[in-house]
Amino acid sequence: MKKTYIILALTALTAASCKKDFIDLTPKDSYTDATFYKTVDQFKQADIAAYAPLRDVLVNDYFTSEMRSDNTIYQPYPSNRGTAYLYRESISNFTNTSTNDYVNAVWQHCYTGISRTNIVIERLKTTDFDAAVKAPIDGQAKFLRAFYYFKLVRLFGGVPLFLKEVTKAEDAFLPRSAADAIYNQIIADAKDAISELSAPAKFPQTGEATKGSATMLLAEVYATQKKWADAETLLNTLSGMGYGLNANYADAFTPGNKNSKESLFDIQFLEGTILGTTPNPLPFHFLPRSTNTSIITGINTNNSSTGGWNTPTQDLINAYEPNDKRLDASIGIVEGTYNASDLFVYSANKSVIGYTPAAGKMGVPYIKKYEHPPLIAVTGSSDNFPVYRYSDALLLLAEAQNEQGKSPLTALNTVRSRAL
């Protein structure tokens, strides 16, 4: 009898141990792909995650975009021919290959953002949220997807067009679509974003994409396609959304004036070292390479491995009209000398206006508008990076009007009168 009870007990224990819920490995203290996308707040968090790659795109994109223009150059580093330096130099020299890490980073981070927007857009369709709740979530995701693809198509031409969440390995590999197909999708997404997003409710804004952000994006797309009348129509709607110029040009870049009425869309940064902060590293990248940047930044920071890039050219400096206030607000001069290691030893911070080097010194231009010392953390600043400003919209409007044989002077002079 005793043996019978033991056998029954072991049988019961074995049966219990084989129950499916006993070996369920889904963690109870964290979200999974299957349990997360359920509430409005979770979808809003997913939208925020789709914004995050913008910062990674930015810190690589100025190599592939700005430094390939006539506006800026790289500062060679003859004493260090490491791979990273050669990669950056080759981009500026138009000699980069497909293995270049900085070019590849723009591609990779854009597609990271696209992947996240696709998840939001597709999964949002399966919810029973009210239409008014869904609209801003979907609109922001579609603005971001359009933005990422617009960056890609201008740099690479036709690219793979992912519009669905990738759930299987075989879905992760698509051939390139024609550039026209990419532009058609960008336009469709931007139009949806315009219809689903609202104009800013107040200034300063939250930093999220708005109807104005999407309007400016679509207008730039149309201008790229030389659809000047369509671009003009869109751009003329922005003033009715409350946008306008700040009193001073430099106000558009100060951390204390973020997301102002002049901001159509900024990449957001927050200085600090605690969890959740996202400092902007560009103030250090845009200074001459040195072991001590304190004359400019207010803190003793060594940017010898991360500086010396995107240096303004003399051609750009010469392009400013006499008395243009934007020149002194945008570009400064670091005065000093190069040492034997090809690092710049700062001795003074000078104005670019009428600059003449002191005896035995030389001046190196730097992008000044993101430098707001003293910086608290050596990792970067709280400066946002403006993607679209209302002044950009006015200048694009003037171009669209001029291309149609109309007078561009009203829009053009609105910007010019502030500068002079």
From TrEMBL:
Compartment(s) of residence: Cell outer membrane
Residue ranges of every copy of the RagB/SusD domain listed in the record: 262-419
Domain called SusD-like N-terminal: residue spans: 22-222
Main location: membrane
Pfam family, one: SusD-like_3
Keywords assigned by UniProt, alphabetized: Cell outer membrane, Membrane, Signal
This protein's record includes keyword Nucleotide-binding: no
Similarity-based family: Belongs to the SusD family.
Protein name: RagB/SusD family nutrient uptake outer membrane protein
